[in-house]
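Subject: sequence -> structure tokens, single chain

Hey, anyone have a minute? Need the predicted structure for the following. Not urgent.
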Amino acid sequence: MAEASENGGEVVWLLADSIKLEGVYTHMYLHSSGESVMLIGAKGKGDARLFDVVRGGSEGLKLAESEVMQTRMDQNSFVQLDFANLPSQHHLAPAQFGSFLIVPNSFGSKSGKLVYVYTSNSPPPSSVVRGGGRWKGVKWQEDTLEITFDWLKTCCFSSRHTVITAETDYSCEYEKKEGKWTCTLTVNKEENKNKYFEHQRIHFSKLPPSSPTLLLADGKFKLELAGNKLKLFKKEEKATFQEREKMILQMNDVIDDCSKDSLLETFGGLVLDEDEEEMHERKGGRSINLAGVLGRALQQREGEAVGDITKTIRSMLTVAAGFNTVEDSDSQKRVQSALNYIEHHLPKLREELESRMATIQAVNDLRETSNGSDDTKAKQGGMVQHSDVDDERLKKGVARGHLLNKMLQKDHLQSSNLTRVVTAIKETIAESIQNMKNDVMKTEEEMNEKWKAPLGAREYLVAMNEKATAKSKAAISHFLSMSNLLRIDLLSLSGRALDSLCGMDNTGFIDAYKNARMKLQQECNEIGKYKADSGSARIRTAHLSSLLAGVIPDDMGDTAANKTWIVMSHYIAEKTTPSPFCKIPTDIQRNWAWLKGKHAEWSEVEARSGSGQGPHEG
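Reply:
Had a minute. Here:
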């Protein structure tokens, strides 16, 4: 249905997503962020569902049910919303909620004493729009509230940071202090009946009025609760909509002409020796075959110099345009040639698709704004692994690095817009690149002076390894400095992309940094298997003392490879300034800090115990 826009033009609402609901829902409330909506059913607060508006779908956004409600809500649970002190920021929303709680047990039950309270620090809708939109759904923080007495009768919010209950014969108040819900008031029913019944009254009070339609993102999207369906719509100018519909109809004609097999329909009459001209007249249809038009357009561009991926895609179009064509016998030969080309380049096309999917994910990562840190830590090998989500700058630095890596590929540098971006980046770090080249060159000269010919076979290998390590050490500080300047993880680039950016023939430093990170992680995993509860701590402490000094431990093979990753790890961890945008050195520094902690722990055990049983896996 069309309506007038603010500038006087007509607009239409396009269906972006629709979810079929089981049961009847009578109330719909928008979260203050504009990215989640709570539905309350006809059965009351025991029948609730929470949906997030997230990026995706044909129109840019879609609906997704929140895992929070799916995990905690059951047929015996009920939900309470916090409507307190929330300004109405949406035109059609009479009330918004900021927090909610779930009581997972049936009302009046004596079993279970936990209430789950959910809060969020999502930005208001205006910030979401100005910032380009997160649309990842609200990130809820779950806290537990343990009731004081055995029997919970009522439970609800009196403000965002205060929950009031009626428990057994007491009225209680809970406040969130220092991140924990604490009971701050208990009053016996006999002492203050008014407070006790007031808590019950608030719990059983009617829900505020709600609207079946809610506007999102300054009116660009809207939610509609209609019957047993929750619908998400996107607003579009009517003229734009009509133009797009016209183009869709034209594309449908192209698809029909390309996919319809008219060979027998066109020439079947030859069996009866009919005239071909009469057969074509009897066939009817459009006077212009759009598949043939597409085929001729592709044929005219055959001589263009394009990359393998572009040529593969055009070959697919050639197959689509010419496979069912009966007017031009040469088109079948072009189809055959195109199929051969596709078959040969299909593996590369699959590889490119995976790269594009990763690039799109990187773009989405950059679009999203962090909504609090992720407290979840994954443990591996006894060491706490820091998630990239814990540090938004690191996450965005890696994402930008992935995009830059894609831009620096030869095929994409043909784009004038991408060339402009890459040129701007090169100009920004031109002086730093020259300084890095000078330092690397100076280091190479010093190494050549140290390792003068003639060298034996073993000495030559040692010399090459030491030269590579020294050059990598000379370059790392420059890479970190440039990454900070650009806010891009330059160490996430491939060797070829880094060569293109820096104008150097061989920047094999990345492999040295990656190998150091991998080997150090393996060392942490191995160290994490042992418990420092015996005399073996002395052996482990000696091992770590050497490692943390940048020296190969006695119980580790004295090889060039081991020396390289240990020296490189020690240098990055101890001699460089951390960059919040680079993952490789961040991982090394975090692992190094963990090893230092383990060394201190074992040193203390060694001092106390002296000797005992050997280490065992824990």
